[in-house]
């Protein structure tokens, strides 16, 4: 039998536990775990700020990296609820594996690649591919995202193969884990030039750094970038709301600002 004097304490403890459980549940509902391609690093800052105006309590937990690596992580149980890929093939791969909802698949942008340098006084990227044909030219190190799992790296490789330059530039290539790291190589001068996402060089952080030349779109396969709700986010209304927001006119204006025109 519980002593009468201990009953208020017991009830108080139960009340605290219930409150903690409710708070934890509310926190889970008010958060979204997002895996996003690294070309969205700066664009998502604006997208998320706009989304939070309509959902002020939302906790957006964003991780950026290579789309291929995220696909592998999700297959291995990573609890990402929304996946924004730089290539529609990766979300489709998850859908085929039963790890994403096909009805939520949304191609939100077409990515574009540029050849960029932070030292335009030494490296004239306006020469385009011709700049890379001279093995003794100013580009001693050329940054490229790893084409094995980074869609922008694959696109860069396709463009170089199209121009019969891929084999020739191999001794000078420095591989980035993702497109953001590739841009970092160029920004810091660890690479003389590099193939990066247009969205990165248009960002406020990099728009005044160096010069860039847009790679002709007919030299590489179209970069259809797609978002999808994963199995982990199926029961999270906020995750669905986030995906819906990406389809709005407000989001479209932001995507266009970063060069993601459809």
Folded structure, characterized:
The chain has 262 residues and is α/β, with parallel strands linked by helices. 39% of the residues lie in helices and 20% in strands. It is built from eleven helices and ten strands. The chain has helices at 7-29, 43-54, 67-75, 89-96, 130-133, 151-162, 166-169, 179-187, 198-201, 237-245, 249-257; strands at 31-37, 59-65, 82-85, 106-111, 113-117, 142-145, 173-176, 193-197, 211-214, 223-229. The chain has a five-stranded mixed sheet with strand order 2-1-3-10-4. The N and C termini lie far apart (71 Å). 41% of the residues are buried.
Keywords:
11 helices, D-Maltodextrin-Binding Protein, domain 2, 39% helix, 2 domains, five-stranded mixed beta sheet, 262 residues, alpha/beta, globular
What is the secondary structure topology, with strand pairs?
Elements: H1 7-29, E1 31-37, H2 43-54, E2 59-65, H3 67-75, E3 82-85, H4 89-96, E4 106-111, E5 113-117, H5 130-133, E6 142-145, H6 151-162, H7 166-169, E7 173-176, H8 179-187, E8 193-197, H9 198-201, E9 211-214, E10 223-229, H10 237-245, H11 249-257
Parallel strand pairs: 1-2, 1-3, 6-7, 6-8
Antiparallel strand pairs: 3-10, 4-10, 5-8, 5-9
Helix pairs in contact: 2-11, 3-4
């Amino acid at each position: 039998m519980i002593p009468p004097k201990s009953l208020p304490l017991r009830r108080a403890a139960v009340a605290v536990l219930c409150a903690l459980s409710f708070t934890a549940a509310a926190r889970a509902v008010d958060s979204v775990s997002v895996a996003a391609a690294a070309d969205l690093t700066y664009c998502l800052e604006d997208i998320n700020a706009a989304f939070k105006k309509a959902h002020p309590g939302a906790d957006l937990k964003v991780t950026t990296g290579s789309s291929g690596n995220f696909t592998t992580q999700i297959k291995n149980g990573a609890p990402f609820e929304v996946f924004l890929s730089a290539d529609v093939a990766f979300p489709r791969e998850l859908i085929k594996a039963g790890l994403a909802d096909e009805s939520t698949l949304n191609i939100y942008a077409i990515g574009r690649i540029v050849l960029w340098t932070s030292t335009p006084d030494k490296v004239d990227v306006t020469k385009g591919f011709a700049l890379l044909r001279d093995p003794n030219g100013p580009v001693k190190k050329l940054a490229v995202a790893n084409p094995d799992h980074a869609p922008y790296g694959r696109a860069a490789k396709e463009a170089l193969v199209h121009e019969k330059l891929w084999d020739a530039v191999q001794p000078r290539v420095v591989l980035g884990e993702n497109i953001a790291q590739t841009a970092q190589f160029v920004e810091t001068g660890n690479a003389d030039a590099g193939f990066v996402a247009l969205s990165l060089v248009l960002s406020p952080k990099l728009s005044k750094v160096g010069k860039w030349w847009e790679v002709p779109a007919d030299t590489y396969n179209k970069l259809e970038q797609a978002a999808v709700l994963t199995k982990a986010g199926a029961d999270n209304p906020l995750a669905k709301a986030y995906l819906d927001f990406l389809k709005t006119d407000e989001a479209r204006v932001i995507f266009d600002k970063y060069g993601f025109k459809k």
